[in-house]
Amino acid sequence: MLKKEFPKPTGEYAVGTFTYTVKDDREEVLKPGTMRSVAARVYYPVLKESAKGLRKTVALSDNMLKGFKHSFKVAPSFRKNPEANQSECYTNAERIPGMRFPLIMFNHGYNSYREGNSFLCIELASHGYVVISVAHSMEGMCTELDDGTAIFYDKSLSKKTYDPMLGAAWALYRLMKARGTDGELASRFDKTQNKYCRFLMGRLPEWVQDNQAALNYAKESLADLIDFEKGVGVTGHSMGGNTAYALCAGNPDFVCGINIDGALFGDYTDAVQTKPFMQISCRNNEYVVTRAYVRHTKLVYKVLFRNMQHVGFSDAKHMLPFKSMIGKLDPDTMHENLCRCHLEFFDAYLKRAKELPDLKSNDVMTVSVYPPDMQ
Q1: Are 273 and 301 a contacting pair, CB within 8 Å?
Q2: Measured at the alpha carbon of residue 217, what is the angle toward residues 216 and 223, in degrees to the nearest 5?
Q3: Nearest to 134 by CA among 44, 212, 28, 17
Q4: Quick one: which of 299, 280, 215 has its CA closest to 251?
Q5: Using CA atoms, how far apart are residues 190 and 195, in angstroms rounded to an integer?
Q6: Are strands 14-27 and 35-46 parallel, antiparallel or unpaired?
Q7: How many Å apart are CA 73 and CA 78, to the nearest integer?
Q8: Do 281 and 304 contact (CB within 8 A), yes or no?
Q9: Which residues have C-beta within 8 Å of that of residue 117, sequence separation ≥ 6?
Q10: At what angle do helices 198-221 and 239-250 cross, to 10 degrees?
Q11: CA 304 – CA 281 distance, rounded (Å)
């Protein structure tokens, strides 16, 4: 069931969008003998006057709707209301001459899709950021390349994500209920993932390289739109949030990042987080993300959302009725608070418009701050 009204951007700018594909970037590990391509969507600020009279961008293409059916057997329907299948952005809208904006990279979750958090990306762009959302071929619901190719999720990968499936599910459930110090819980998570999640651990470096390919293109081709002087911010949902953590921990281009409810799969044995970071989680996942709170040299923010479930941190919150998947929190309330977390954080650490984020606990979320800790 589609919500009648989707969130509208609240910033001073309207939002333009276009896509690009980095073709044949490197060998495709998941399909030996082929090459990997990286598809990205750019959201960018435009003057509201220049968007007047333009048609809004289609939210879900025919290929994306096929991707929904391929992965989940069902897809949103727009037959009765075609106008509902529109994003609050405009394809190739006129750029603002002479203006450049800081860059935030975004990564979707496993078996999600490039536009899966479009409401958040559009909101950030309306407040003066360029957002590049990176698709991950074969591991996204549907990845659309600019030559018209559509790459659907490889269902065979689902059997590899947790092995054996039942043992992994039980072990991860026990982790959700475990108690201990942040360091103890992080150690327990590492033991569990090393036993059951080697495939996901191995995918993290590939997702990191996808971002580097998309970023290299932006540096070469979008320097007139993006201000790289202060570095790059990064955020993402689920596996995409894990990728954000890895990029901040290991890539000097990235100066700050946010992980939206992503378990930290990967080899972080020697990793030290040297960038300001924010870990956003629902209560169910509070104890499987504690790696974010140990071994860091800058402030780390812990934000726990009440009445939320994992899938609800994406656009699905406004599209699905299943409370067990998205949580009981009102979709607009979730969106408002998730966007506020991002804007306060990136305004402080990327734009550097303020010294610290102005974030406080409220009825929706609990905010804690961890000082630098090298233990």
Answers
A1: no
A2: 95
A3: 212
A4: 215
A5: 9
A6: antiparallel
A7: 16
A8: yes
A9: 106, 108, 133, 237, 260, 313, 314, 315
A10: 70
A11: 5
Mean pLDDT across 265-288 = 95
CB 303 within 8 A of CB 341: yes
Q: What DSSP string runs through 85-141? A: SB-SSEETPPP-TT--B-EEEEE--TT--TTTTHHHHHHHHHTT-EEEEEP-TTTSS
Q: What fold is seen in the domain 14-370?
A: Rossmann fold (3.40.50)
How far is Cα of residue 85 from the mean position of the Cα atoms in its chain?
21
On the question of pLDDT at 45 being above 70, the answer is yes
**281, 310 Cβ separation under 8 angstroms:** no
Crossing angle between the packed helical segments 182-196 and 165-177, to the nearest 10 degrees: 180
The long-range contacts involving 224-227, CB below 8 angstroms and separated by at least 24 positions, are 224/95, 224/100, 225/44, 225/95, 225/100, 225/101, 225/130, 226/100, 226/101, 226/102, 226/103, 226/130, 227/100, 227/101, 227/102, 227/103
Beta bridge partners of 36: 26
pLDDT per residue as tens digits for the range 154-167:
999 999 999 999 99
Spatial neighbors of 59 by CB under 8 A, at least 6 apart, are: 85, 86, 87, 115, 118
Q: What span, in angstroms and rounded, lies between the C-alpha atoms of 375 and 373?
A: 6
98 contact partners, CB below 8 Å, separation of at least 6: none
- Say how far apart CA 301 and CA 357 lie, in whole Å: 10
In the chain, domain spans: 14-370
Give me 367's structure tokens. Answer: 């905010």
Q: What is the pLDDT of residue 1?
A: 43
Q: Evaluate whether 240 touches 314 at the Cβ level (below 8 Å).
A: no
- 104's CB contacts (< 8 A; 6+ apart) are 124, 129, 130, 131, 132, 232, 233, 234, 235, 346, 350
Supply 267's token pair: 């080899």
DSSP letter (8 states) at residue 287: G
pLDDT digits (tens, 9 = 90+) for 29-40: 999 999 999 999
Between CA 134 and CA 137 the distance in angstroms is 10
Q: What is the pLDDT of residues 331-359, one digit of tens each?
A: 999 999 999 999 999 999 999 999 999 99
